[in-house]
Structure formats: C-alpha cells, structure tokens
Design a protein that fits this description.
The chain has a single domain (9-69), classed as Helix Hairpins. It starts with 11 loop residues before the first helix and ends with a helix. It has three helices and no strands. It is mainly alpha-helical.
Amino acid sequence: MAEKKAIEKLNYEEAFAELQEIVAALETDEHALEEALALFERGQALARCCAELLEEADLKVQELTDSGDLKEFEE
C-alpha cells in the first residue's frame, strides 16, 4: 500500500475521498484481518477529521452571518 498523507494535512475533499476508498475496499472482503483493522482505524480517523472540518466551516459561516458580513447578500 502506498504511503498515505498525514490526516491532519488533508483538506476535506481529500479526507472524504480517501474515506470513500476505504469503505469500498472494506466492502470487498478481500483483506486479511490485520489489514482490514488498519483500514478501519484510518477510516475512523478520517471520519473524525471530516466532521471537525465541517464543524469549523459551520462555525465560520455562523460567525460571518452573525457579524453581518453576509447581510449584503440577503437582499
């Protein structure tokens, strides 16, 4: 397996794409238990990363909306 980029250096799109690849790989049942567990662990970390990045984006949108920076676009 190719060396993977550190999860904390991935953007949302990269993390989500890799998570989708892991899910597809795990669905094939073609992995030894040890490899499947490693994939599952990385998938869990990627899912947490995606959730955190979405939370950060949501908070940013809330900050912009609350501060009035987006009010000009509401009209």
